[in-house]
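Predict the 3D structure for this chain.
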Amino acid sequence: MATFSLRRYDTQARASMIVSLVSLVALCGLAFIVFQNLDPTDGVIYYGANRKLAILGGGAITLLLSAAGFGLGLNSAGQRRNDKPLLSWIGFFLGASVLCLTLIMLFFFRARGESAIN
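Done. Predicted structure below.
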């Protein structure tokens, strides 16, 4: 019985989809933290020091997870020995989507965020 090895393309395809799904869950958590203190009248996000660290740390984790899913999907998508190409493509496109949305959300936080501590 084969063990877990990222040298095999079918294992990369499965790992790509799993890591991309985990990054999607992390993105949902990041969106909840970012938009929790959004003032819709002014379009400003108020935050404290701990919340800023949580958002930046969560964003970094989400970026790393989505980049890993994107890369694994990209590497295994067109290989002949990959018997699960659909998982590769799902991981590829889901990782790319989460990567783009995370960058947009972090930019939005950077542009519209204001410290609540004076």
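Helices lie at 9-35, 49-76, 85-112.
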